[in-house]
Design a protein that fits this description.
The protein contains ten helices and nine strands. It has 254 residues and is α/β, with parallel strands linked by helices. It is globular, with a radius of gyration of 18 Å. The relative contact order is 0.15.
């Protein structure tokens, strides 16, 4: 399966996913371009994580098509995962695994990787090589999860709730690191509840509500479109979108 346009690394058309009577994702269309940082926003339960999981092929979609780097991720998972990095919202590590062991084991799975010792230093984990992951703080485990995702030099990086648990300084350092990845040509797809983070990092965003895309565009475009309603930043746009009736979203997206 080929992307519709040469610069699209992710193409999603008519994506639908249900869990029993609950429709988590309801006919989503979106495209992510090579070399951009794309944000998926929405309240809890809006369908962000499910969209990412279906885009990666780790959850089977009920309808629609997905092309990731020119492949169907459900049918060609090995080819896809050789070229993408993933940090899930609740990354789990084996009991008693040490930081250095996690890095070394992950690096051994790929023919070429970044220097994990250098990344540990960059992420403020340099002195923790021999520490058990279970003994790390929540923020330190979050940094390690992101480190392992970028270790194999992915073309596309998926980050689910990127900076949850990080202090303000660490959050800013992570932002700088992602900006550097984008400068290298890496495409990033992220979910976040921090509108300041999204406004700073993302080239384009899609706001989800009840499994559908309510609004999409660059942060600047969305803020400008809601300026008449008093919106001064992306946080204002998000709150306004969550408070509007569904039919208003359909009109706004045309």
């Amino acid at each position: 399966m080929n992307c519709e346009h040469d610069d699209e690394v992710l193409s999603v058309r008519g994506l639908r996913k249900t869990y029993g009577k609950l429709t988590a994702v309801d006919g989503i269309d979106l495209a992510v371009r090579r070399g951009e940082i794309f944000g998926l926003l929405g309240a809890n339960g809006a369908g962000k994580s499910t969209t990412v999981e279906c885009a990666l092929g780790v959850k089977k979609r009920d309808a629609g098509t997905v092309s990731l780097l020119g492949h169907d991720p459900e049918r060609e998972r090995k080819r896809v995962f050789a070229r993408v990095g993933v940090q899930f919202q609740a990354t789990r590590f084996q009991d008693k695994l040490r930081v250095g062991e996690a890095c070394g084991t992950t690096a051994a799975l790929y023919p070429k990787t970044r220097d994990w010792r250098e990344l540990l230093e960059r992420f403020g984990l340099g002195g923790m090589v021999h520490r058990g992951i279970a003994d790390l703080s929540g923020g330190e485990r979050q940094k390690l999860a992101v480190l392992l995702a970028v270790l194999p030099e992915p073309e596309v990086l998926f980050l689910d709730e990127l900076t949850t648990g990080l202090d303000p300084v660490s959050r800013r350092e992570m932002w700088s690191f992602l900006k550097g990845l984008r400068a290298e040509g890496v495409t990033v797809v992220l979910t976040s509840h921090y509108m300041e983070e999204v406004e700073y990092l993302c080239d384009r965003v899609a706001i989800l509500k009840n499994g559908k895309i309510a609004l999409s565009g660059s942060p600047a475009e969305l803020i400008a479109s809601e300026a008449g309603s008093g919106a001064k930043n992306l946080d204002d746009v998000f709150v306004s979108a969550m408070n509007q009736a569904e039919y208003s979203f359909a009109e706004a997206s045309r």
